[in-house]
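User: I'm writing a short methods note and want a consistent example. For tRNA-specific adenosine deaminase 1, I'll paste the sequence; you return only the structure tokens, no commentary, since I'll be parsing the reply automatically.
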Amino acid sequence: MNDDLGTRIAKSVIDTFNGLNVKSGKPVTRSNGVQEWTVLAGVVAILDDSEIKPITLATGVKTLPDKVRVYSKGLLVHDMHAEMLALRLFNYYLLEKDCPLVDTTDGVYKLRDNVKLALFVSEPPCGDVSMNHVASLKEENEPWVPRKKQKLNRGRNNFGELGIVRTKPGKSDSLISLSKSCSDKLCLKQLTGVCNAVVSTLFEQPIYLDYLVTKNIDQEDFNRCFRSRFDLPNVHYLTLLTYDYDEYGFEKSEDKTASPLSLLHLVPAKFTQVLNNGVKNGSYVKNKAPKPGGESVICNWNMVDKLGTIKDIAATDYTTLKQSNARRQELKTLGRDTLQDWTCTSEDDFEI
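Assistant:
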């Protein structure tokens, strides 16, 4: 039953992605004949335990270095791994007027009772849950050796150490991002819910993912990453679903190169946006915020702006707004302390 549900979810995301008629955003074959690859992810709503409705699609494998937060001012999207983009776009959808997944009875915002949520990912999420899978690949079975001693566990550093927090490294010699692995972020969301700092101020109760749909993950690794190292009360634990559907044509392989672009697609609205370096494709400016109007719909600045069309915002800056949800802040602190060695990124503050 679980495998059947996983396959139905995977098929809904992959078929929707394959059916997109877009001019750019999907991996291409470069002029030198090398084909690009990328990770595909999507948030799927399961209605009344039967109807499968894909809500968001996203691709991407990149992360910006932490230093860009000095000039970002909420206009850059820092983490462009597909699963995080799919969740950010889902947050944007929750702020849509008359969102069909949201119950606003008596002015109280909550996810409708007949809705369950799944996150599909075409590759195992980076970080702890996939370390044994990475180590088992013959062409990738050497751990990264840092050029100098580091406190952070980046990417494949010390991949024999399991159950630890890791950061997204880009390449082994890339600038430090401090952005935690998708494994760690998804693990924490079992406690805080998937609503980000902006959207969580609208919903009184957290919204949780019910299923993670992916492949090449051993159940033991999944249990260690998402359950045994996160033994806390009131955790909404993910359930792992596998799938058997091979129609996605841009999977990672040694003879391919990673696509620099990320594609966002909001299925109900038929809205698509392509990102490059955390901004709309074509709007990137080196070491600066993007060209005017070049920010993504899912950047923090636009999220706050969209929230302001729904409710009055008392905070005068983003950091104050983020900290105003005291319960979410408490849960984040508890979750991070439990996972240990969680080094926070720099602030990306801006005036509201």
